[in-house]
Design a protein that fits this description.
This protein has 464 residues and is an alpha/beta fold. It is built from 21 helices and ten strands.
């Protein structure tokens, strides 16, 4: 026997066998189709599980899971003796210590965005005088996110490279990507796959900002929200647009017992109820997302980065998770801690546009409301309409670049039409999603096509 201890938020999944028939776990696949990732310990197979986070697991010599015992439990025990300034100082010391430990003496690769998480890392790395090679990317025909990232890099004196995510790159890398993420996530979310070969010469270690936006914000609910209502909120957060419809179609197609809605609500209710945080709905939902969303969705595509260099994630660190459990929700709401940290350490970075609040920055974003934001909204709308008149569609999402257009549509349909896939999933279901993407409301069908493409690649790999 051996013992495996999983981190609070694992970077990579660890698999084990369980006593069950070696057959497809169709209910789990329906949930996967609805939300875009496998829930809890689920995999494609009934006799295979992913080990739960924050647990000590006993594994038999032949690879079977015998027992799992939690060593960490998410909780909400805010330190009421600590005011905001003291909390900010504690965060500053902790965050910079973690960044230093993870990157000291190494050439750091820092993906920069227009948001707050990577900007917070940039502040720490600049303060630590680290050697940083930064980069960013935007979509061909989309918002120039690289302009914000370049401005951040310039203030920090980091090397910087801007990339453009091109139309149709997916079809050249889809097999490699399916191998890397084991078909446990869609293929258009990890846009870093478009420049994966560039990573070779960028540096020695990635510093990635994943999960900061979840830990350092509220969940958008009242803290006294009842448990049953929390379940409803989570279901809405989890299910992607068009995801429930696809899951229901698959449930019916496979003649599964009961109905998808009842099954899914029961799973969410059971998992959420097991989180012993009765005093804060926001903290409980955050814990749920950190237990089940982060390791089974966010972490899955970290494999793309890890295929080139070691990855470090300051927001995944055990000490950061433990710290969050002691911070009052009022200090986490609206990204207050990160904003205060950036303002205090690097005021020049705080003056750069915050993409989510554009054209405002970390000092002016409270004005992102009528009438203050009307000039920008009107100008932005006019620019987008003008571009569309010229035949240049504004691109907001990667699937628009990979799925739309004659060449992409043909390659997509070829992937969805390979032999034996129709035995697994009805051709009618596939065609409904495929043609819906081309002729109806594309936002509703994009997720369905994404998931069907993943399932088609999974089926092809397992048929070979």
């Amino acid at each position: 026997m051996k013992t495996i201890t999983t981190p609070i938020i694992p970077v990579t999944p660890t698999y084990a066998k369980v006593e069950a028939p070696h057959e497809l776990h169709l209910e789990a696949i329906c949930v996967f189709a609805a939300i875009g990732f496998f829930l809890d310990t689920d995999t494609y197979w009934k006799d295979e599980v992913v080990l739960r986070p924050g647990c000590q697991h006993t594994i038999s010599d032949d690879g079977y899971l015998l027992e799992s015992t939690p060593w960490f439990e998410w909780h909400y025990t805010p330190d009421k003796t600590r005011d905001f300034d003291a909390t900010l100082q504690e965060f500053t010391t902790l965050f910079e210590s973690i960044i230093k430990e993870q990157t000291v003496g190494k050439n750091v690769i820092l993906p920069l965005s227009g948001g707050l998480d990577s900007r917070t890392q940039a502040v720490a790395l600049q303060h630590l005088k680290a050697s940083v090679n930064s980069y960013s990317y935007d979509f061909q025909g989309g918002y120039k996110e690289t302009k914000i990232a370049e401005a951040i890099a310039k203030v920090c004196d980091f090397d910087f490279t801007a990339y453009t995510i091109p139309n149709g790159y997916l079809w050249e890398v889809i097999e490699d990507l399916a191998t890397l993420n084991r078909c446990e996530s869609d293929f258009t979310a990890p846009r870093q796959m478009a420049i994966v070969e560039e990573f070779d010469t960028m540096g020695e270690v990635f510093s990635l900002g994943h999960w900061g936006d979840v830990l350092f914000d509220d969940m958008g609910v009242s803290d006294d929200l009842p448990l049953k209502s929390q379940v409803t909120v989570l279901q809405k957060k989890l299910i992607k647009k068009g995801g429930r419809d696809l899951a229901v179609q698959l449930w019916t197609h496979w003649n599964l017992e009961g109905d998808f809605d009842s099954y899914f609500e029961g799973r969410i209710s059971t998992l959420l109820s097991a989180i012993d945080i009765p005093n804060s709905a926001n903290a409980r939902i955050r814990a749920f997302k950190s237990l089940f969303w982060a390791p089974r969705w966010t972490s899955v595509n970290l494999a793309v980065f890890a295929s080139k260099h070691p990855v470090t994630l300051p927001y995944y660190d055990q000490r950061m998770c433990e710290f969050i459990c002691t911070v009052p929700e009022a200090f986490l709401a609206n990204r207050e801690l990160q904003i205060a940290y950036i303002k205090k350490r690097a005021p020049k970075l705080a003056k750069i546009t915050w993409q989510e609040q554009r054209p405002f920055n970390l000092y002016t974003y409270p004005k992102n409301k009528i009438p203050y934001n009307l000039p920008y909204r009107i100008t932005n709308k006019m620019e987008r309409v003008f571009q569309e008149i010229l035949g240049k569609k504004y691109v907001e999402r990667n699937w628009e670049l990979q799925f739309l257009g004659v060449s992409n549509e043909k390659k997509l349909y070829d992937c969805l039409s390979h032999k034996n896939f129709s035995d697994f999933i009805s051709k009618d279901i596939v065609d409904d999603a495929y043609y819906g993407l081309q002729t109806k409301t594309p936002l509703i069908y994009a997720h369905q096509v994404n998931m069907l493409l993943v399932l088609a690649q999974f089926k092809r790999f397992n048929d070979e």
